């Protein structure tokens, strides 16, 4: 999802203010995000939104310790607006600046409402742009255990909703309809990689939904029409498969990494069925599972400030040559990394 967001956070886990100006109204007519419109709205709104974040938190600009800004991954226009503004602000206020990976922000979104994360942790980050499973041996260290080979989980929800004539974003609408549907009504097979890897794949499931719609003669919902039982059953069956794919993979992989905490975050973590299945998996694994509440699951600036605080406290500083990186990866642990080696020794991985 694309939103104009700014926040002020204290000590990395207390929200002083968090302003989210959603762009859903702009993009919903197109059934997805239009990059050009997204960056224009960022540009229009960045000044008033930053002012609002300071005003609503009753805090002066000179009272902050530093500035954290998302540097990627994402849409280039929107990222550049944020990075340029943050650099100008850091220069004008003479405050330290730090760049944050958007996905790492989602990992830190659990910092506000849960006990401190114990490491090593496993983090499932599922949003409209990403579906990643990470091993986090210690704060700030990430090893990708699984990623999506095609669509992100949220993207699959959005595309299937569009196909069924439902609105945007599709996730919340499908979840709502699925509550009155039978998850076993339409038989889909569980997406699995042929090569034995733990990676996710949702495009096959999306094609199976298209095929089902075509072969069953199901009519997409027209504007304002009440969805019938067949649509509700399809929504429930599709959601069930996405949830099973995410949670069964997470549980299987987590079992061999002996985590102390399971983190499930990102826009799709709003989904009640995913939360319930994750809770059950965590119980079987014997570890606590932490979720952000829904308003911190979808994109927000508080999570970027939380991740930025950790970096600032570790002495990290960005220069004025900081730039947006559209394809930025969150992977800084390789197989012979010290953090992974220590976790292996300690937890006999
Ligand atoms: O994290 P997010 O706000 O933006 C990205 O970084 O992409 O995630 C937005 C995604 C959308 O694809 C939306 O359909 C999905 O999260 N989403 C959900 C639910 N609420 C939002 N998916 C499934 N069930 C939900 N309740
Ligand atoms: Zn996100």
Structure description:
The protein has about 350 residues and is an alpha/beta fold. The protein is about 45% helix and about 15% strand. The chain is built from twelve helices and nine strands. It has helices at about 25, 35-55, 75-95, 100-110, 155-165, 170-180, 205-215, 230-255, 270-285, 295, 300-315, 340-345; strands at about 5-10, 15-20, 65-70, 95-100, 120-125, 130-135, 145, 260-265, 290. It has a five-stranded mixed β-sheet, sandwiched between helices. Helix 2 (about 35-55) packs parallel to helix 3 (about 75-95), helix 5 (about 155-165) crosses helix 6 (about 170-180) and helix 5 (about 155-165) runs parallel beside helix 7 (about 205-215). The structure holds 5'-O-[(R)-(carboxyoxy)(hydroxy)phosphoryl]adenosine (KG4) and zinc ion. 5'-O-[(R)-(carboxyoxy)(hydroxy)phosphoryl]adenosine (KG4) binds near residues 1, 129, 158 and 266.
